[in-house]
Amino acid sequence: MEKDKAAPQQKPTSKENTAPQRTQAKFSDQTITRGEGGETHQTAEGDTPILTTQQGIPVSDDQNSLKIGARGPSALEDLHLREKIFHFDHERIPERVVHARGFGAHGYFELYESLSDLTVADIFQRKGEKTPAFVRFSTVAGNKGSADLARDVRGFAVKLYTKQGNWDIVGNNIPVFFIQDAIKFPDLIHAAKQEPDRGFPQAQTAHDNFWDFISLMPESMHMVMWIMSDRTIPRSFRFMEGFGVHTFRLVNAEGKSTFVKFHWKPQLGMQSVVWNEAVKINGADPDFHRRDLWDAIQKGDFPEWELGLQLFDEDFADKFGFDVLDATKIIPEEEIPVRKVGRLVLDRCVDNFFAETEQVAFCTQNIVPGIDFTNDPLLQGRNFSYLDTQLKRLGSPNFTHIPINAPKCPFHHFQQDGHMAMHNPKGRANYEPNSWGSQGGPRESPQQGFRSYPSQESGAKLRIRSERFADHYSQARQFYMSQTPTEQTHIANALTFELSKVERPEIRVRMVSHLLNIDETLAKKVGDGLGLKEMPKPADAAKPTRMDLKESPALSILKNGPKNMKGRKLGVLLSDGADMELLKALEKAVKEEGAMIEIVAPKVGGVEASDGTWVEAKQKVNGGPSVLYDAVVLLLSEKGTEMLAKESTARDFVADAFAHAKFIGYTKAAMPLLEKAGIADSLDQGCIALEKGEDISRFLESCRQVRFWERESKVHAV
Ligand code: HDE
Fold it and tell me: If you measure from the C-alpha of residue 247 to the centroid of ligand 1, how many angstroms do you get, rounded to a whole number?
């Protein structure tokens, strides 16, 4: 047996000879030495901090555990090894039971005008005042590691660090919800998430349990229209709306209450991807939405939303055709316009994902003086839930001591101790009332303190739902009717896709019976798409569908899309010998439009353009499919085309861009690639030949429509 060979003993006299050394190299201003066993040592020099344990004890060797002889057992006294592995073993905390996958950023809210007539909320008093904010976007059903483009509702949770405490608007990108009463939430989420026996599918609703539950819950039909629309496959967090969903109250100095619904309107307009694109993005870049937000903020292209309020009084609430306490209903913007009162800007990425995004704890019950709840039974249930879930996840009632959750205003209370207490009340008094005078700690303030709106409540104690909650189909129909034909087709296709994944035929049929109460043409399209031999009878409805509700253009994404390419990304497929003049002109025009360019090339190192300029690429063609871009340009030389026409991922780049109704700019030399991709004979107005500078302006002008939707019907046969 080979004899144990110990590394040479170090003389601990000087810094240089404390680590075993054999060879030395300089890399990135750090001296790298190799130990006897060939391992890498990077030692602290100059300003580089010295590695320590959690206790601050300097570490001499982070590559080798303490052993008895070079090949002997590890010593139990190795405090560094023990601490390092102990900590690693405990790195995970439970993921959120819903909204596990999310991404957050810091920013601020800026008020346009004082709302002191409506509310005493401090955040709404002074025009132009900025309030720090943290926002976390999320998907609902997927686990923490799931892909960003799952068809799912997006969470849109905003924490506002106001001068009178933290106010959380824990909203979604859809203004309604599946259920009316919190008691059904665990059932809904159980049905939506992976099935309990098999543990799949995750991050998708296209399975039996979800549609079984939904088809037995007529109250979810309005939400079904929204989730089957393109709202659940947003192009970016930056391009989606947010909603507080429930009706809340604003309360002013006279104690007058005004009902309010909160809206976040993206400055860049709304945009979604198409389903086939979403599926492919999930493979190409599962972090597509995270990366998009990160990149935009890092570039200084700060995303922005306007805060809009729908304000109404009891009178309107009584006259409105639906109950304003029912979270499955909206108030159309055409009936109560959205008043824009401020803007939310996200201008700083987190320093650490776990410390901030993962540990941020939103609670619907975090409201401030001047804001109040209503009796929406979903909201009431949520107010119980969020505090509970934070304790479970973060492990201590002191989760507000974590910096991301701590108020940024002064706070004083007598709550103390518990796990991980970072600060406790100072002084002798930890109770009140007390007789310690000015040393006695904080006192209540009837003037400034939070007071609930004194609404009159009475009634028998019953498990009951208001009859005013019983119309489940009218607004579902209104939503569907408010969509453009393209969007209506997407809804029908999404329903057909999802229900085609359902194994039990009776569930599919039950869903179609509900659709018959929404719109017959939609029901027939889906029935046909599912291959139903005969249509079922419409589902029993507690209330007949109202046919008199007016279309609401505000509900359509396409009617509210962007007016330019600002914030969008153009993918340019480039080859050696590409026309440099054209590329320069394109880069200039895209910059002026406020959009971005990403170069895709056969090799990531780059290409040599026509004039000998070396242009670096961001993506190799097989890692930069066209699904990652809003529009594409094929800036190719003849030689480059010849080579790329033989590359399947280049052919997919073109064919997918075409199938996803994207605008395609191309040089004449790229024609053979278009031919190989099978689209040369179908070129339409969305495909624009680029020869000179003015073609580029024409191309970018077209791109402002984001997609060439007329093409879509020509590329789908089923
Ligand atoms: Fe949530 N929800 N929810 N929810 N929700 C959570 O809290 C819950 C509902 C929403 O980025 C949990 O911290 C119940 C509606 C968002 O951290 C949990 C009910 C809306 C987020 C919880 C609802 C939401 C959550 C899980 C029915 C839109 C992510 C982790 C009564 C208005 C916040 C957590 C973040 C998170 C409970 C319904 C939005 C378990 C019981 C409706 C955006 O407390």
Answer: 16
Q: Among the options 41, 80, 99, 246, which is catalytic?
A: 99
- Is residue 148 within 8 Å of 292, Cβ to Cβ? no
Ligand 1 center to residue 689 CA distance, Å?
Answer: 49
CA-CA-CA-CA torsion for 25, 27, 29, 31, nearest 10 degrees? Answer: -30
Length of the chain: 718
76 C-alpha vs ligand 1 centroid, how far in Å? 45
- Considering only CA atoms, which of 328, 162, 154 is closest in space to residue 237? 154
What tens digit of pLDDT does each residue of 333-356 get?
A: 999 999 999 999 999 999 999 999
- With a 6 Å cutoff on the Cβ, whether 386 touches ligand 1 is yes
Written as six digits, the tokens of 206 are: 């296209």
Q: What share of the chain is helix, strand, coil (3-state, %, to 5)?
A: 30, 15, 50
Flag whether the pTM goes above 0.90.
yes
Q: 154-158: list long-range contacts, CB under 8 Å, 24+ apart.
A: 154/232, 154/234, 154/237, 154/240, 155/99, 155/102, 156/240, 156/242, 156/243, 156/264, 157/99, 157/360, 157/362, 158/133, 158/134, 158/242, 158/264, 158/344
Bridge-based pairing of strands 130-139 and 154-162 is: antiparallel
Q: List the residue whose alpha carbon is closest to atom 7 of ligand 1.
A: 386
Pocket of ligand 1 contains residue 192 by CB under 6 Å:
no
